[in-house]
Amino acid sequence: MPAVETRPAGRLRRGLTEPLLPFAALALLAVAASAADQAVLCWASVGALAGYSLSGSV
């Protein structure tokens, strides 16, 4: 009996649900907002990072 195959859709779904992708996107948003002197957007993205990490997603 062959091993369980990984379908392309399964690999894509697994890649999109990895916690690294949203964490990296939020971190880049925080840095870009800070560099652009957008204090509200910067703090909102930092708050999103904190909420994401406290939710147990990371």
Helical stretch tally: 3
Taken as a percent bin, the fraction of beta residues is under 5%
In N-to-C order, the SSE pattern is HHH
Specify Rg, calculated over alpha carbons: 16 Å
The profile of the biggest β sheet is: none
Mean of pLDDT: 78
Q: What overall geometry do the principal axes of the alpha carbons give?
A: elongated
The percent range for helix content is over 70%
- Class inferred from helices and paired strands: mainly alpha
Low-confidence spans: none
Q: What is the count of β-strands?
A: 0
C-alpha end-to-end distance: 35 Å
Task: Explain this structure.
This protein has 58 residues and is an all-alpha fold. The protein has a domain at 17-54. It has 3 helices and no strands. The chain has helices spanning 8-16, 20-35, 39-54. The longest helix has 16 residues, at 20-35. The model has no long low-confidence stretch (mean pLDDT 78).
What's the structural blueprint in terms of helices and strands?
Blueprint: H1 8-16, H2 20-35, H3 39-54
Helix pairs in contact: 2-3
